[in-house]
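Re: the multi-chain job from yesterday

Posting the exact lines I submitted so nobody has to dig through the queue logs.
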Amino acid sequence: MTPAPPLVEFRDVTRSFPGPPEVQALKAATLTVEAGDYISIVGPSGSGKSTMLNLLGLLDRPSVGEYRLAGSLTGDLTEDERAAVRARFIGFVFQSFHLLPRRSVLDNVLMPMLYSGVPRREREARAREALTRVGLGHRIDFFPNSLSGGERQRVAVARAVVSSPQLLLADEPTGNLDQRTSGEVMELFEELNADGLTLIVITHDDAVARRAGRSIRIADGRLTEL
Amino acid sequence: MRVLRRRKNIEDTSAESVGDPAVAPTSSAAALLPAVKHADRFTFQDLVAEATADIGSRPARLVMTILGTVLGIASLVATLGFAQTAAAQIASQFDGVAATQVVVTPAKAQSGKANTTVATGRLPWDSPERVKLLAGVDSAALIAEVELADGETITAVPVNDPSAPITASPKLFATTQDLPETVDGDLVTGRFFDDGHDARGDRVAVLGQRAAERMGINRVDSQPSIFIAGVSYSVIGIIEGMDRRSEFVDGVIIPQGAARADFGLTAPSELTIHIALGAGPQVAKQAVLALQPDDPESLEARSPAASSDLSQNVQADVNVVFLILGIIALLAGGLGIANVTLLSVMERIGEIGLRRALGATRRQIGAQFMVESIVIGFIGGIIGSALGVLAVIIVAAVQGWSPVTDPLIAVAGTLLGALVGWASGWYPARRAARIEPVAALRGV
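And the result, structure tokens for all chains:
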């Protein structure tokens, strides 16, 4: 029996933006992430971190090279198929939370399930469960504006995991948070990782990066394992 | 390594997998995307719920957005409503004067000599009794113009004065007793003759008011005599009014019985029927059958135009200016919706990027803004139609008219609002669908 394929497999992935001058944001990157890994990607701004995240999250296509997700090539997927893969495989956490200000916390967490095909009957229970898990069971009917930054980011985490993705991508998740709430969010990530969720955190904060099992540095578009 | 083949879209794949679970996934799409039941996908209800969730969240902006549509729809609905109301009003005024009269005459045929016609049918002497039984007939009178022999006149003085200038003699009519009711005549003094005079051939006459003036007769209590072709007739009344047949005011009216006996009247020339409002076409059809059951084609009945024809004619003259103004307001309203929807797309770039990252397709994003815009247009249409109908009712109430509006106009107004929303949502929705999640999620 062959072993399960790695969850994420980058092979010589290059992403270049047509010029002039042509910019290669990522140069022949090769990376393998096994299911259950906890990886941090660090680097200064402009080093290609965002490009890396966009490629990992199927928001962008590599110019050269191949990206396999759970063993399947992603290069031949149509735009709609990529959207569907994002909905079911990948959860996103952003630096600026991106919560909808005029919807309740519960509605914000329910939203991804509109697109991910979670059975309708289970949706509300799963949203409540996800919110309870991130410690916001008492804030379900609040609106995002009345929450603190740490609470908002935890709502965003609940939204990212509610569809049971296999891969969680976090883009500077602590960038807008103070040290204490950063710690809370990172602890939450570690708990989720302990439950088997594969985690890729992009950050420029070495303290955050050091908590991950594996750390990858990106500089000038090239990856180096630390 | 698996052979990977590209699939057009996920729906195909999932439908296939649902239909036949034994089929092994052959493309990366199928491998990555297990089938989802249709009910759990992003359905039309989800679309409408997502599109309408934010509409009410900024009431002031919503009001500004729909204002143009409301004004446009309201002015269109009101213009059409006013036109209908006015048409109904004009029609009822027409009815008051002319639409209550049916005239039956014998059919005419070309005779041998050029430009002469002969009657091919004849009206029975008891025509009024026959048609009075029909529903919708108020009263009826036979009318015949009596031709006097050359040189014979009607005068109040039986003097043959060869030196007097020849004056035109008033016209002589022979009618039945219900003439005043039938042609809206009013007696100035005296009375009109009745069936008794008619049957006995009594020599009585009623003068039209102007004829009486010319003959110097203004009182009838002494029953002054006039001489019609030398035969003495007692004047028993003077009549005026008769707006429908003004020639009677200048004429002398005698019973048909007397006209038959003295002047050899052979046949009445027409039957005038006073009818209830709107009964025209039906009375005209039935009257000829009642009068000549064996040969209805020998009679001709002229009825007033049906009021529906009339109001249609008036509606054709609907105030084009107001319609154009309404359409311009509607265009402005559509531009307003397009503007605000575009603004809202730009404001919600972050939300759009997020939805795209969470798995919304371009089509779903476009549809969301499209539906939002249609619903806004629809709301504008409803409010506009309501205001338009209200305006018609208020104006009609102030004028003392009865408001008439086809309910379909209000329905059409509402749908037109939705159509405006659809047209103006098209471009913003396209812009929204084109937003790249990468660009949208960066920063902010």
